[in-house]
Known about the structure:
Blueprint: E1 3-7, H1 15-23, E2 31-39, H2 48-63, E3 68-73, H3 76-86, E4 91-95, H4 104-114, E5 119-123
Amino acid sequence: MNNIMVCVTRQRTCQRLIDYGRNLIESEEDRLFVIHVARENENFLGNREEGEALEFLYEKAKEAGASLTVERSSDVLKTLTDIAEKNSVNKVVTGQSGANGLGAGFLDKLEKRLSGKAELVVVPAVS
């Protein structure tokens, strides 16, 4: 059984990550989780376009058989690893560094935290 967690931002382009995660599903027992973690000091949904993008991603997650979970945190890395652990996730899908505002260092840290627990799958940015 695969438990797949897709990490998204508030961008419509993250639909490709949800689609990628859905393609990793191999059986009816597999579960897909779509997660967005907003920093506590971030102006969340203060921009109409971002709100519309998040609503769009919610619909795409629903179509993929997943729900979209939105969390607030001052420690995004810890929150993502805690959610992965709580849901027994064995694959974490994220976008390539720079495409989603996260630095390569963040992805390196996430991969180290997931080591031995889950595989980090980095989807290249669309050019």
